[in-house]
Amino acid sequence: MANSASGESVISRAMRVIEAFTAGSTVLGVSEVAQRTGLPLATAHRIVAELEAERVLERDSQRKIRMGTRLWEISQRSSREMSLRMAALPVMHDLQALVKSHVQLAVISDGEVLYLERLSRRNAVVNLAHPASRIPPYLCSSGLALLAEAPREVQSRVTDGPLTVSTDHSIRTGDQLRAILAEARRRGFAVSYGYIQPTAKGIAVPVRDPDGRTVAALSVVVPLEVDHLPIIPAMITASRLITEGLAPHHYTSDDDPWRVRGTGQRASRPRTTGADAD
Amino acid sequence: MANSASGESVISRAMRVIEAFTAGSTVLGVSEVAQRTGLPLATAHRIVAELEAERVLERDSQRKIRMGTRLWEISQRSSREMSLRMAALPVMHDLQALVKSHVQLAVISDGEVLYLERLSRRNAVVNLAHPASRIPPYLCSSGLALLAEAPREVQSRVTDGPLTVSTDHSIRTGDQLRAILAEARRRGFAVSYGYIQPTAKGIAVPVRDPDGRTVAALSVVVPLEVDHLPIIPAMITASRLITEGLAPHHYTSDDDPWRVRGTGQRASRPRTTGADAD
């Protein structure tokens, strides 16, 4: 039903239109939408008009199109990740006041680290990443802390796979990564030393739901030369306070955030939009 | 094209399915989706399957459906409101550290106050609202600060319209509201005294883009008995710092966030999900 000659559904084409809008291109004309999506101009016109009628997209005075707030509102109200974020935010503020640096909350989604929140201070270390950045788990402390607790087959998939290198400090071999994961598992926290930004390091601890299941990572980014060991107890306390604010069974029993769905493209594409996200 | 017997487009039906998920009902079965949307079960099944293929919706182990992170990710990356939020967040953290209370950022959307962010402290005044809450502008300080700067015809639409009353303190008459707006305009900030929550008051200042156009309100919620005047200079400074972080022409010239689009239902329905949001 409702499919194009290519068999693609209307919903799929609508998602392509929505995804044509990015951080770098928040305002587009219909012809640009057609170009970016590969859809015929008439189709792009029709889908834009329907999304505008639904107030997903908006037009400005020049008839240019941009994203409205509707999708954000809907997802903000109803997604599990947002309730995690709301439970974590006050605790993250307290932690930030203490460590006086960036504090982040991340989950695994589709095998990648997805940042749900990042609290930044003015005048803190340069920080290019935004919430909704995704990066491979072996490039940041959050990913390492979560990978350290993942099932062995998930770990093997990453340690045996290709590793993207961002800086001279990045993890280069599966053996190196295996040793780092073993240490993170033993110590209960993970550290990334300039893997993405050579001058910054990240420290992450796992966050569990009341059932003891790991659901997120809480991390802090500090300059490379800062001693991070004094920060760890405060991070562990913060993580426990977040757990107290979560509902039991935050994840149901056989959810697998490490499972890469769809074409697998997403996981193989190294997208370090999170720049210095370690 | 692609319309049902009722003439409703696939995209419109898909939006109905997505909106069936709310803060109180984050996990639904397909039959519940059908029930909530009024769509035939087969249609609900098909649309859920398509949205699942697009990873907008996800299934858990019990085959129950819930919202994924995809819509949040897309909207987070590409919407203008999110870039405003990112510019404001570090400044809001500093303000919060100073005033030690809730700090909020809101815009006008479709004639309503829409909260983009709320920084809350543990142990601060009770605060039931979440980002993405919407409330009528005359019920909160953010709305009053923004309404005070709105064109006269917008003000009249609100002062002449019906006013919902939440507490004994709420504004009850158009004359009262007109006087409050005149004072807010003269002083450069607005105060709401227990309009929603009888024990809290909100203080709001407008936030402008580098072109001088008002784009948002920055507000603080404190207990009713706290003297708010000492807070005002810090709020005005914070507002100016946010302006510095915004791109010029944040809004294009004839955007009108006060315009109520669609059926008009939205603006007439008093939805104070923002509880003590003043």
Automatic annotation (TrEMBL), chains A, B:
Q: Which UniProt keywords apply?
A: DNA-binding, Transcription, Transcription regulation
| Domain HTH iclR-type: from-to ranges | 8-69
Q: Which organism is it from?
A: Raineyella fluvialis
Where does the IclR-ED domain start and stop, copy by copy?
A: 70-248
The record's GO molecular-function terms, alphabetically, read: DNA binding; DNA-binding transcription factor activity
Q: Does the keyword Transcription apply?
A: yes
Q: What is this protein called?
A: Helix-turn-helix domain-containing protein
Q: Which Pfam families match?
A: HTH_IclR (PF09339), IclR_C (PF01614)
Looking at the record, which segments are called Disordered? 252-278
